[in-house]
Amino acid sequence: MASPQRDIPRMSPYSRPIYKWLDRLVPVALAIFMVLVFVDYSWWMLKSPIHLLSWRSLIFFGIWIPTTLFYVIMAIKDIAQNWNGRWEFAGPQARNPLADTIGVEKVAMQRDFFRSTTGKRYDLTKNPFFRWLFHRRWYQFAAQLPNVIIFNIVIIAGLIGVVNPNRNFATVITWYVWFGVLFVLMIGVGRAWCLICPFSAQAEWVQRLGLFGRGKKLFTLGRKWPQQYSTVLISVFFFLGLTWAEEFYNVAGPGKPAFTSMLVAGIIIWDLFYALTFERRSFCHYGCPLNGVIGVVSAVAPFEGFRAKDRTLCKTCSTKECMRGSKRSYGCGWYEYPGSMSSNFYCGLTGECFKGCPYENVGLAVHAPLKEAYQPRKKRFDLALGVTLMMGALFFEILNATPQYAAFDTWLSRITGWNLVAKALDGQLSGYPNPLDYLGIILIWPLFAWAIAQIGSLLSRRRLTARELLTRYAYGWIPLFGLGILARQLPKVLTNGPTIARVISDPFGFGWNMFGTAQLPLQAKSFAPTWILWVQLGLVVLGGIASLFVTQKISHLDFQGQPGAKGIHVLMMSAVVVQMIVMMGLYYYIALVNPGHPLSPPIR
Amino acid sequence: MLRSRANNPNKKFDQGFLAIGAVLLGLLVVALFTHVADFISVDVMTIMLWLSVGTVMVLSRLNQGRWE
């Protein structure tokens, strides 16, 4: 079985001088943009009626001057080092002749493992523009820089801005805009957020001592994360912990914007610690609270991530530049090997493998949505457990808007004495949510999943283990979780999001008017149309149907012909339907009984 | 079955982890005495990360790191 020869150009379609200059000038323009933002903010800060030596000014300039200086120096270094055409299209090496013999045999042996490559797909890198773009070293930097600037302003705004969350850039951009956009990005593109993440960007720039160039030395101890502790559950548990902290401190508004600053600054500091201690993007793998959520919800997206076009070639490649790096690329920060990737779970879309592959054998394909949830033969138990835990957290986030939960939580905090502990942690907080009921509600979902997996195992007369059934069928919950959590964010985003127009002109609430939009008559909750509830319910139904589709596919691909398969299939489909109905009922009930809650637009 | 302490290949990691835990606990005590709310909140959130890693370390030792 010979693999088809691919039609790859030997010369770049963008080899004319204008593109070479574009290649040089884009990083220069980005560096100038960074300086301009700094100058503009500094000018407005100096113009403000506050004393230059006030604590607010000191915090502002204490953060802005060192970070901007660092980035500009690094940018100049990278531009100078890469001025003479190092980013040019290299062209593919000749195909290894062994690929059509040894490679084909090896891939044929693993055909079942690689079943995720089947079906219709369109490779974006067939398009010359995308090929040109992904080859640029500044491709990721250009995506990251605006976000880095935005989130540095978030830190400063939270620390020095006004306390009113609806007039503070930190709260508005983070919780009314970012948290909604984040889920849309996950569902639409996969790990697009990881591509533009400002937290890992800054840590990685320090680790590489450069913004986009390929440096020779790294500024890190480069320790390896222990293999035994390599699981996505760290990220899931941290997500649960931070969700509790977010509720406890009321970070997401209308709490104090300073807490948002603390959270963002905290993530950058933790990320920096990991980057200086461990190799590559260890924080993204074993620390980032969003890693699990993004990875899981990415399975809904129609992007399969950077992956080998022809695996036979990878089987005979002895240099593995995609993993190890090359003269023009770093090794994959996410420890991925495109030659054996079977899902997009850990593809951070950095494009390093694309730049590094000497055979131009890495592509970025688009295919039907949901495929990444059911196609991979290899499904992980920790990921399945993570899905059930996060589903529990989502149901907690919906349940906590009910008056019954509020009464129960208050009662529990009183009898357990938790309210006294909460007062010690912060005198102004009530103690909501009590960690016991928080964890108790979340744990219902893994226990529910385990119970139905045990019933499924009984239906198969114990030929299939409960662990295997849970591991495979939990992937079927992913679409319901992804769209359910998007529905959870919608009211806050849609009702408060438009206030962004005011705060971008006056980010700190000091009375600035940078873009002339500070006085627009936009108030929080003035955009609370009744249709939001119906959009929420629609998303849950859509998620439920998608989950049923994925569950059906899993039954077909992973369990067809197995003992008790039909009964197990009905059982697992029923579990999805029950969750969908409960979720819809809760969203409707909240809107009915608690119309003033930020989660619940009124029904008229 | 739990691995014995002598054979633990992650001994240095475990020791570093415990040291960081001690530092975080110390910082929490200082923060509670000084009543600085922002300091307490950052420390509490960092402890969440520490606890997450710790929970996985315990679970991984119980199931010998079998997550697939």
From TrEMBL, chain A:
Residues 173-215, 269-298 form the 4Fe-4S ferredoxin-type domain. It is found in: Cell membrane. InterPro entries: 4Fe4S_Fe-S-bd, NosR_regulator. Pfam families: Fer4_5. The chain crosses the membrane at residues 21-46, 58-76, 141-163, 175-199, 229-245, 257-276, 381-399, 438-460, 472-490, 531-550, 570-590. Keywords: Cell membrane, Membrane, Transmembrane, Transmembrane helix. Its main location: membrane. GO terms for cellular component: plasma membrane. PANTHER family: ELECTRON TRANSPORT PROTEIN (PTHR30224), ELECTRON TRANSPORT PROTEIN YCCM-RELATED (PTHR30224:SF4). This is Cyclic nucleotide-binding protein.
TrEMBL record, chain B:
It comes from the Bacteria. The keyword Transmembrane applies. Keywords: Membrane, Transmembrane, Transmembrane helix. The chain crosses the membrane at residues 16-33, 39-59. This is Uncharacterized protein. It comes from Sulfobacillus thermosulfidooxidans.
